[in-house]
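Researcher: Let's do a round of design. I'm pasting the structure tokens now; please hold your answer until I've finished.
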């Protein structure tokens, strides 16, 4: 990478000092009398060898810097304003009744936008572009937390995030070979350029669910946009080659041949590692296998030449497609009849519950104060695991099942991860725990702007920032997309007078406004769409662009 920066400064008595150490600093000083002022402008240009030959980088950055200075700050600011106007037109969330919340969510949305890769070669790091925490690495946070925000507001960026995964297929195949898998692809749990960067495998590499998380995003993208071109030319190859992972690490249980299980993995909860049949992993792998089989058959029927191309590229035996469908049908999802809950894994319920009563507040987060093996021996969760599966695959479970699972897991979850609160808040809203849902939401909406975790100096929490948007749209508005069917179940928090947000669905721009006694759906742009609020079917078109549901 080459970076060229200049700092034009106006002011009397200017002094400059450059420092190179752990980081590069340049210090400016001016001596001013009362009534005088100084102005500093920062112009910078960045080019990397991912896009251009190394020998060209310096010349390109100097030329771009000169162009920027020639335009001047005012013209550059106007260009930025135009871009942001377009962004806010699609992404804006407005809450009446709490200006501080509005500010927090807008702050979060802006950071997501400025941190996001848009070129198909880059992603979004866990700390955005604000700090050195996690060394700039990308995680599964992108697909499960951040991707839904961009899919609903900037679908062209969402596609580029999936293009990034397609660009990483070669490294994912190599990683699968390193992990003793004869075929298929395994995406890294932690990466930048495509290789696995996690040094601690129990709570890192063993999180095989990353493959299903990527597949879930592809499914959501395709069903929300109808982008056949992407599916045929990029998405299907990802789906099929990564689906093979589950056949490599899973198997039919010799004692229960009707069950397909997945063994020795770690789910989202990093306080429980190396387990059999992690509920989240199995539930998401089931979706992955089923959708991969469906897409393979769809392309084989509708576009035989494309199917032949993909099959040849990944050396696919067509019998594998039937294997995926059969494994999905037989996937084991643990359930305890006595407690009426879904165990997080085969042995989770047999462990002693962590002694929360005698754990002092200063000993949280637990991972900073106890050896991992001590934590692994107990029923204690760092973050949403089963509860996250309930949100993503909510059409598989009844409200009563979700409520029992929530009631069981919430008391034993420390929420030491910033990924946790938003998910618990969304599910709390769905099962009718509205006050608790709001409390969880408040933990994410201003997490970084108020430095609520006391660690924002290491960078913002991009997944939690996206989680605040999820809290409004998925939580209070109850939006879900199951198998392409859009639905809402809105509620209005007691302290708000109304809220509204915009969505983009299959080329249609939709505004949703939730008030005390009614919900208003407006088609802002597009040919029309149909969806549901509860049992009410709503159909919008250019001729009938508004529909009001009375509460």
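Researcher: That's everything. Go ahead.
Model: Designed sequence:
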């Amino acid at each position: 990478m080459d970076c060229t920066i200049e700092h034009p400064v106006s002011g009397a008595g200017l002094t400059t000092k450059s420092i190179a150490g752990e980081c590069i600093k340049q210090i400016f000083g001016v001596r001013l009398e009362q009534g005088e002022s100084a102005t500093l402008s920062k112009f910078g240009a960045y080019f990397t060898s991912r896009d251009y030959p190394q020998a060209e980088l310096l010349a390109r950055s100097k030329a771009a810097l000169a162009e920027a200075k020639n335009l001047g700050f005012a013209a550059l600011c106007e260009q930025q304003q135009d871009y942001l106007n377009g962004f806010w037109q699609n992404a804006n969330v407005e809450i009446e009744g709490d200006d501080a919340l509005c500010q927090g969510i807008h702050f979060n949305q802006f950071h997501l936008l400025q941190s996001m890769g848009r070129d198909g070669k880059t992603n979004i790091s866990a700390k955005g572009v604000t700090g050195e925490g996690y060394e700039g690495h990308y995680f599964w946070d992108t697909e499960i937390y951040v991707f839904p925000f961009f899919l609903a507001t900037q679908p062209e960026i969402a596609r580029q995030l999936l293009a990034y995964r397609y660009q990483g297929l070669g490294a994912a195949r190599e990683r699968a070979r390193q992990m003793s898998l004869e075929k298929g692809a395994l995406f890294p749990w932690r990466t930048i350029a495509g290789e696995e960067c996690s040094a601690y495998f129990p709570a890192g590499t063993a999180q095989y669910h990353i493959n299903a998380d990527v597949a879930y995003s592809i499914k959501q993208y395709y069903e929300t946009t109808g982008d056949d071109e992407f599916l045929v030319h990029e998405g299907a190859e990802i789906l099929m080659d990564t689906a093979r992972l589950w056949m490599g690490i899973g198997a039919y249980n010799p004692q229960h041949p009707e069950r397909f299980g997945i063994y020795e993995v770690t789910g989202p909860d990093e306080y429980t590692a190396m387990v059999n049949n992690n509920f989240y992993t199995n539930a998401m792998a089931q979706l992955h296998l089923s959708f991969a089989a469906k897409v393979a058959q769809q392309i084989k029927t509708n576009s035989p030449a494309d199917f032949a191309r993909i099959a040849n590229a990944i050396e696919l035996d067509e019998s594998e497609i039937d294997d995926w469908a059969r494994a999905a049908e037989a996937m084991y999802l643990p359930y305890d009849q006595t407690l009426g809950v879904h165990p997080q894994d085969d042995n989770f319920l047999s462990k002693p519950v962590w002694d929360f009563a005698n754990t002092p507040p200063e000993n949280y987060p637990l991972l900073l104060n106890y050896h991992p093996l001590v934590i692994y021996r107990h029923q204690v969760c760092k973050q949403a695991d089963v509860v996250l599966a309930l949100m993503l695959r909510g059409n598989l479970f009844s409200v009563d099942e979700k409520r029992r699972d929530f009631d069981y897991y919430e008391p034993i979850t420390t929420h030491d991860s910033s990924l946790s609160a938003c998910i618990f808040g969304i599910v709390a809203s769905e099962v009718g725990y509205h006050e608790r849902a709001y409390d969880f939401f408040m933990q994410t909406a201003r997490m970084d702007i108020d430095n609520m975790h006391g660690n924002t100096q290491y960078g913002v929490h991009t997944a939690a920032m996206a989680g605040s948007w999820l809290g409004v749209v998925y939580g209070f508005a109850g939006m879900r997309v199951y198998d392409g069917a859009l639905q809402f179940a809105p509620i209005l928090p007691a302290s708000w007078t109304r809220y509204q947000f915009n969505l983009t669905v299959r080329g249609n721009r939709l505004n949703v406004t939730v008030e005390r006694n009614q919900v208003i759906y407006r088609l802002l742009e597009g040919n029309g769409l149909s969806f549901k609020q509860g049992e009410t079917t709503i159909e919008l078109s250019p001729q009938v662009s508004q529909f009001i549901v009375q509460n």
